Amino acid sequence: MARYLLRRLLQSLLLLALVSVIAFAILHLAPGGPLAQFVATGDLGTEDIDRLMKQYGLDRPVPIQYLDWAGSIATGDWGNSYRDQLPVLKKIGMHVGPTLELMVSSTLLAMFIGGMIGILGAVRRYSFFDHLATIGAMVALSIPTFWFGLAVIYVFSVNLGWLPAGNRETIGDGSFIDRLQHLVAPCIVLALVSTAVWSRYMRSSMLDVVNQDYIRTAKSKGVPAMQILLRHALRNALLPMITITGLHVSTLLSGALVTETVFTWPGMGRLFLDSVSNRDYPVVMGMLMFTACMVLLGSLVADLLYSVADPRIKGASK
Amino acid sequence: MSTVQTVPLVPPRRTLAERYPALRRFLRHRAALLGVGIVLFMTLLSFVGPLLMPFNATDTDIRARLAVPFGGPHVLGTDPLGRDVLARLMYAGRISLAVGFAATALSVVVGVLVGLVAGFYRGAIGAALMRFVDAMLCFPTIFLLLAVAALIEPSVTSIVLLIALASWMEVARVVEGQIRSLRERDFALAAESLGASDSRIMFRELLPNAVAPIVVAATLNIAHAILAESYISFLGFGIQPPTPSWGNMLENAQSYLTNAPWLAIVPGLAITLTVTSFNFIGDGLRDALDAKLDR
Lengths: 318, 295
What we know:
The structure holds 2 protein chains of 2 kinds. Chain A is mainly alpha-helical. Chain A is built from 14 helices and no strands. The mean pLDDT of chain A is about 85. Helix content of chain B is about 65%, strand content about 0%. The N and C termini of chain B lie far apart (about 55 Å). At the A-B interface, helix 1, helix 6, helix 7, helix 11 and helix 12 of A face helix 7, helix 8, helix 13 and helix 15 of B.
């Protein structure tokens, strides 16, 4: 187990190094550069631009800049924002909380609702409900997240007035109830895609399990149907779902960015949009790395949990 | 004597569906057929529709600003500048559909080439290419799209290139897996032992046998590409006004949600319908062409 963990960790680190090269190359080979907006507005003269280039080290060849960046990131220094000189890690740290809050709450919601839909679809296979769930999941995967967000705002905030239309809390309030009220709408919006994914995989996972020998044994022993479903089938069907959740981090992060924009949620998506519009290269680069880390961590954790939870795999991974 | 020979050996004419079982399976998939219908309708609406419209996508009419749908000459109402929403939807459809198709075509070409080479030359080249694919997949799509979109001069061409850049990896993975198993099969080994060149084996022997999963992946890719365009345009980094696209029609819709909800409903519905259709078609094709990919 320890050797497997070590190998997977090493693989992830190598992949992360490759990710950083690609991200750096994309950012620095694109035309313009970090100072393009100052050049365009004409606020700064050529001398000032040259001075800034020197100060930020942008006058050096890109590979040297990369090595410099990689060297300092290895010591934990992710650089400073060009905008407000705050350390990149600190800026990310200030925004990661709200995004995690959104991602975790919507994942829990999606697990619950998607799980129920999936189980019901598997139990009543090919019923009207099952077909409806199949079509519904496909539509849910096709709706642009921001459009669904607008619809939720239109119905629940504009027309019914039940929920606030944006932000994480009312300024000056910020109590638990107030924050919960603000969380409901973006949480539902972000959960839509995950719910569709969960319901589909839950259904096929349940169908796989239902045909296993131990279920037939339980049935022939006379175990009540409900108990078979919850104790025997569900527990085993949930196993593969761990992997789905881990591999879903990337989609969830993309969804979070869009959701945060619609609901003016002060998370990483907002920070990324702001940084990208301001050509704040250190922050953009740092966030690309940070999100890639989250994605890799998701698949790593999924792998490990799965091999811990399923004794059949444990032997094979050693 | 010879009369026996002239009796046709071919049985009576069979329909296309009888001759091609895959087509028959596809025709049984009702959701996929509906998808084909909707895609055809959207394509006709976008490319032929504007010829029948009295309005242009960019003509402003300040006296008729924010006209309500179904209440006058503007069937789907007008926007804050008095531009006809239906006409804009049609012209925007041209852009959004074209971007979806072009980006997919490009990503399929790149994905097939990478997957083909990686699957054929396992070992160092294959491993390096697939690690590159893995690394690209570490970026959440929207983050990658925005990081590049904000740096380049936005135009229809650059958006196509950008979406292709962010979406060729899935195709590469599918193709690599297929080629890797196909090249162990007898027909590939036979071609190799006959002294066929690498490129001949790759393009003439292996690739034709991997067409089915590529077609499925490409269809689903169109859905993703149309969605991607709408996302980056909605966020303001995609197709730039005055050129309309389904995504940028929604860009300002949020500010008018209270008094002009149709500005959000109309283009959003167009995107959802089209994307759902391509997803259903992809689903139907997967069932019809290749049951092995299905889990």
